[in-house]
Design a protein that fits this description.
The protein is of the alpha/beta class and 523 residues long. Helices cover 36% and strands 10% of the residues. The strands form four sheets. The chain has a seven-stranded mixed beta sheet with strand order 1-7-6-5-4-2-3, sandwiched between helices. It has a three-stranded antiparallel beta sheet with strand order 12-14-13, with helices on one face. Helix 9 links the parallel strand 4 and strand 5. The mean pLDDT is 93. Bound molecules: pyridoxal-5'-phosphate. Pyridoxal-5'-phosphate binds next to helix 6.
């Protein structure tokens, strides 16, 4: 299959159209309505004196502009996106249909509870299902992403020790070195000191390092299982015991839930608090597809028996409740021990509904099959690539992987200076999306590959074949990979500059600078 991406020399939108050109004209407000609602009077002080600087285009020009741009982009609807850790699965379109239903779309968060019973029922069911999947008791749908869930979790851990009057001594959170960067960031934002522990050569937590790190200062531990190496943490029960012994709490980073759901539950492993990335595990898209959702679930353990405070009392709200007698759903707002609200209203309802539809569509057996398929895909791919000259499989190479596998391009980088980044460009050139590279940090030249449950066998084979071909080219002609990608809309860019722009120039300013001759024309 030959891949060629469109290369439009697409002007920015300000350079298209002409003054006075319009797509759709909103009719004038009729006189009698004007009389009824009155004229809108903007105080002179804040009224603008010139119209906003907006492009003027016909509808067809707008459509063509964005279609052209979309042809220069690549997404899950084009082909596989095996970005490890991100769990980029295909998102069933039915979920979007449901959330786009006018009966859902036109609801307002300030509407009376009695008028949104259907939506509240869906959210209530979602809370129940998620709690069941992670083995917890109570969930809040409030947080907007995984990292936001982590902050909710670390603030909850903080509140737990505060309520118990031991916060002055509980100052540390333990995190393995394979963790996602958001874990230490969230712990630090909640005011904790981060204590990092090493991974053992088999990919498990080094238990001696853990025991050495645990002390009376341990407030909790954050861990994802399976780990970012795609490996199940075999010591999890012992780890939980060590942390609970000193009255620490265990936080489950649920980003990797796709590798175990339906088969094992964090709640049964000893975790007290867990977040779930709806936009990873439960069929809602990332980024461009809209905001995410990071519900947080807890085991409802007693925090203070005298005041009858439970862990769920510390969570942010609102939480959807059901009054059986009245057969009515209602919102429970945060009480006196809650960490407070971290977001407006009920959280990001649209991705939550996508997740609701996804789980409803799969059912309990389907959820298990998703896990099975994701794990089979990972291990089949691993088998195809393992042993290829140029790539290495560090950390328990003989162990089965769960949802993802992390290869290393270190041999190739060392021998012929073809790096993980070059491999990624070579994949782009063949019409694939690159894997996650240079993460986790404990693997040099990391290629972190996660096909998820939705990728086909043929695509796994094509991907592995291309990675083998890249290695062959690297050893034969190590200069060639440095010229990739050639078939994509844009060639190789300066990634350091692209990922750390000093400032972002808005398109209208680019337009003005170009008009004033201060910027070169489109190349
Ligand atoms: C994605 C991810 C996070 C953060 O989740 P967001 O929803 O992106 O904020 C945390 N941990 C791991 C392992 C992840 O892959």
């Amino acid at each position: 299959m030959v891949f060629r991406q469109a290369k439009w020399e697409e002007p920015i939108i300000y350079e298209l159209g002409a003054p006075g050109r319009i797509g759709f004209l909103v009719p004038e407000v009729e006189e009698d309505i004007k009389k009824e609602v009155g004229e809108l009077k903007v105080p002179e002080k804040v009224a603008r004196t010139s119209p906003p600087e907006l492009p003027e285009l016909s509808e067809v020009e707008v459509v063509r502009h964005f279609v052209d741009l979309s042809q220069m982009a690549y997404g899950i609807d084009n082909g596989p996106v095996p970005l490890g850790s991100c769990t980029m699965k295909y998102n069933p379109k039915i979920a979007f249909e449901i959330a786009n239903d006018p009966r859902v779309m036109w609801l307002h968060p300030l509407q009376d509870e009695r008028t949104v019973q259907g939506l509240l029922e869906a959210l209530y069911m979602l809370q129940k299902w998620l709690a069941n999947i992670v083995g917890c008791d109570v969930c809040t749908l409030h947080p907007a992403a995984g990292a936001h869930g982590e902050l909710t979790g670390t603030l909850t851990i903080r509140k737990y020790h505060e309520v118990k009057g031991q916060l002055d001594k509980k100052t540390e959170i333990i995190i393995p070195d394979s963790a996602h960067g958001t874990n230490p960031a969230s712990a630090a934002m909640a005011g904790f000191k981060v204590v990092e522990i090493k991974s053992a050569p088999d990919g498990n937590v080094d238990m001696d390092a853990l025991r050495a790190a645990v002390s009376e200062h341990t407030a909790g531990l954050m861990l994802t299982n399976p780990s970012t190496l795609g490996l199940f943490e075999e010591h999890i029960l012992e780890i939980a015991e060590e942390i609970h012994k000193v009255d620490g709490l265990l936080y489950y980073d649920g980003a990797n839930l796709n590798g175990i759901m339906g088969y094992a539950r964090p709640g049964d492993m000893g975790f007290d608090i867990a977040h779930i990335n709806i936009h990873k595990t439960f069929g809602s898209p990332h980024g461009g597809g809209g905001p995410g959702a990071g519900p947080v679930c807890v085991k409802d353990r007693i925090v203070d028996p005298e005041r009858n405070i439970k862990l769920s009392d510390l969570l942010p709200g609102p939480i959807v409740m059901y009054d059986e007698k009245e057969d009515r759903y209602y919102l429970k707002w945060p009480g006196p021990y809650s960490i407070g609200m971290l977001k407006a209203f009920f959280g990001n309802v649209v991705p939550l509904l996508w997740g609701f539809t996804y789980i409803l569509g799969l059912g309990p057996q389907g959820i298990k099959e998703v896990t099975e398929q994701a794990v089979i895909n990972t291990n089949y791919f691993t088998k195809l690539l393992k042993g290829t000259r140029g790539y290495d499989l560090p950390y328990g190479p003989e162990r089965f992987r769960k949802h993802e596998v992390v290869f290393s391009a270190e041999p190739m980088a060392h021998e012929v200076d073809v790096t993980a980044e070059d491999v990624a460009k070579g994949l782009l050139d063949a019409g694939f999306y690159a894997p996650t590279i240079y993460f986790p940090l404990i693997v040099h030249e990391a290629l972190m590959i996660e096909f998820t449950d939705t990728e086909t066998k043929e695509n796994l084979e094509r991907y592995a074949a291309r990675m083998k071909e890249i290695a062959e080219i690297a050893y034969k002609n190590p200069k060639e990979p440095k010229t990739w990608p050639k078939n994509t809309a844009k060639g190789r860019i300066d990634t350091a500059k692209a990922s750390h722009p000093r400032h972002v120039t808005p398109t209208w300013r680019v337009y003005r600078l170009r008009k004033e001759g201060k910027l070169g024309a489109l190349k």
